[in-house]
Every structure is written in C-alpha cells, then in structure tokens.
Amino acid sequence: MSTRLPGLLGPESVDLLSQVDAFPTFLYVVPPLALLGAGAVVGTLAADRQGAGVGVAAVVVGYLVFVTTATVAVSVPVGETTVGSASLPALALAGVCCPLVFGGLGVVAGRQVSS
Fold first, then answer.
1. What is the distance between the alpha carbons of residues 74 and 55, in angstroms, rounded to a whole number?
2. What is the pTM of this model?
3. What is the pLDDT of residue 2?
C-alpha cells in the first residue's frame, strides 16, 4: 500500500512497507488467508446461493469498514500536508477488490466442502 509523502514538486507516493527489511514478507499473505477463511465459514453456513452471496457481501462490507478505519487512523498531519495511505486505491483495492475475490473464493470452497 502506498503512502503519500510531501515532495519538492508535490506529494509523492511511496510503498514504505516494501522498503523496510524488518517487515516480514509472509505478512503479505495474512489478509488474503483471513478473507479466504471468512469466506469459507460463510460458505459452509450458507443454505443456498443467495445466502452465499449475502455472506460475500458481509465479508466485503466488514473488511471495507476495517480498511476505512485503518486508512483514516494511519494518516498523520505533517506541516501543511498529511502523510498516510492513498485513500482511493486503498479503499478500492484493499477494501473492495481483495475481499470480493478472496471472500468469494472462500465461499466457493466452503460450499464445496459442505455439500
């Protein structure tokens, strides 16, 4: 996830996590695995396709609330600008696309296991 930093010619986007050696690479797989797990739980509990669709929507909305809160909480004012996540890409990719894809895959796997 990129972060906006003040620059000489305006704000720049930098991915700070990929530049830090102390951040373990395996932590990149934790959110997709959690979304797959949540989708699988929803898939096993869903009685039909409509219930599974509602379950995926619940996973997306729940994760979107989490991502929105994290995006706002991590923003820090520095002088005349704010350093934080780029809001629109964070909300679009991490808040909607990832839970839709991984939650959906989890629901499909959960439905296959439960049937």
1. 29
2. 0.75
3. 59
- To 5 degrees, how large is the angle CA 69–CA 71–CA 75? 115
Q: Mapped to the 3 state alphabet, what secondary structure does the chain carry?
A: CCEEECCCCCCEEECHHHHCCCCCHHHHHHHHHHHHHHHHHHHHHCCCHHHHHHHHHHHHHHHHHHHHHHHHHHCEEECCEEEEECHHHHHHHHHHHHHHHHHHHHHHHHHHHHC
Least Cα distance to 76 among 68, 85, 67 occurs for 85
Query: In the numeric block, which tokens belong to residue 34?
Result: 């959690």
Distance of alpha carbon 39 from alpha carbon 52, whole angstroms = 9
